[in-house]
């Protein structure tokens, strides 16, 4: 055998794959979100997934989407994957970095992305595109010059036996 193999992962497949794998750690029964932050020279800087803050038990805090009492829904407690990935980074500045995420960032995550200096967002699903939150997110990222584009699915299947 001579020469390199050709079916290796592209950078985009690799980083979105890592984001997807990270999302598999989420305990959210409805939407699992994973995120992978990458430097301009393609080094992984940080990862995250959506979940409750440290000390807030996955078994005691609620995972419900709806309820008469907002305090009994997940929305007031869950930390989003993008924010977790940004906060997980302890290496200094994220200026100029790229962020791969399995769901388009909400407006709160967009604020953190912009303020941390991340310059590019590559997302997979945009299922909440019609919501005010995602529309606000796009408006802020447009204004701040943060580029975003959808990941081009290659339909490659990866099987990992653990
Ligand atoms: O920017 C975002 C937006 C949402 N998430 C998380 C927060 C929740 O855990 C789920 C969304 O749950 P639904 O049941 O689909 O409303 O996604 C995130 O991590 N980042
Ligand atoms: Zn968010």
TrEMBL record:
Domain of life of the organism encoding this protein: Bacteria
Catalytic site positions: 82 (proton donor)
Stored Pfam families: dCMP_cyt_deam_1
Positions with a binding annotation for Zn(2+): 80, 106, 109
Entry cofactors: Zn(2+)
CDD domains: deoxycytidylate_deaminase
A GO-annotated cellular component: cytoplasm
GO biological process: nucleotide biosynthetic process; pyrimidine nucleotide metabolic process
Entries under InterPro entries matching the protein: CMP_dCMP_dom, Cytidine_deaminase-like, dCMP_deaminase, dCMP_deaminase-rel, Deoxycytidylate_deaminase_dom
SUPFAM superfamilies, per database record: Cytidine deaminase-like (SSF53927)
Coiled-coil stretches noted in the UniProt entry, renumbered to this chain: none
Domain named CMP/dCMP-type deaminase: residues: 10-147
GO molecular function: dCMP deaminase activity; zinc ion binding
Keywords: Hydrolase, Metal-binding, Nucleotide biosynthesis, Zinc
Sequence similarity: Belongs to the cytidine and deoxycytidylate deaminase family.
Protein name, entry field: dCMP deaminase family protein
Naturally occurring in which organism (per UniProt): Mediterraneibacter catenae
């Amino acid at each position: 055998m001579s020469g390199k193999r050709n079916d290796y992962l592209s950078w985009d497949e690799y980083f979105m794959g890592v984001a997807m794998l990270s999302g598999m750690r989420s305990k959210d029964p409805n939407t699992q979100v994973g995120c992978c932050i990458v430097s301009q020279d393609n080094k992984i800087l940080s990862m995250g997934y959506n979940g409750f803050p440290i000390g807030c038990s996955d078994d005691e805090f609620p995972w419900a989407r709806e309820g008469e009492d907002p305090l009994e829904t997940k929305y007031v407690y869950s930390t989003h994957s993008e924010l977790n990935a940004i906060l997980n980074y302890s290496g200094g500045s994220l200026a100029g970095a790229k962020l791969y995420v399995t769901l388009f960032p909400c407006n709160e995550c967009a604020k953190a992305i912009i303020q941390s200096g991340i310059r590019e967002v590559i997302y997979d699903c945009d299922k909440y595109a019609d919501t005010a939150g995602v529309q606000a997110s796009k408006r802020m990222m447009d204004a701040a010059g943060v580029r975003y584009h959808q990941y081009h699915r290659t339909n490659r299947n990866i099987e990992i036996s653990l």
